[in-house]
Amino acid sequence: MMKASTLNYRMVLSVSLLLLASWGVGTTSAQTPPPEKTPLEVSMHRISAAFKELSADLKQPADTSKDDYLKQAQIIRDEAVKAHDLAPKMAATLPADQQPAFIAAYQKDMDKFTASVDALIQQIQAGSWESAQATLADLKQQEKDGHHAYRLPEKKDAGATPVPPTAPAPAAPAPAS
Fold it and tell me: Which of 3, 15, 75, 95 would disulfide-bridge 50, Cβ 3.0–4.6 Å?
């Protein structure tokens, strides 16, 4: 015959597992799946991840880690080449007659970005760490400029309650003369 404490332990464990299982099912079914990413967004995400890793690594570079740095730089280059032939979502929001010029400008900027990555790879191979760091800073600026020019503004959360602007403080009364 089982002891009462063993029986209670098993019952508590069973109920706990049942609650955890039902909680997990309830939360996943109520969530909406994230929107599908476009191939361009996937490439840009990969560029960003490799860029962050490379930036952190090159803050204190070591010749013994060149292969790791080159691997990250090559990921950036490969994804930039893929991204060159993809159109940003913003292109579809423009009038049809403006789309070709927009895409051509995007591709020109991606060519410049890729050329900068090629320079970065050469600098890493040569162990020119200060030059590589300067090129990374330039690439970061190109990224910011490109996002401003070619990426749709992010939508604000539709469910969020807007915060009303604060009213300006009333002006202090003028001193009496």
Answer: 75
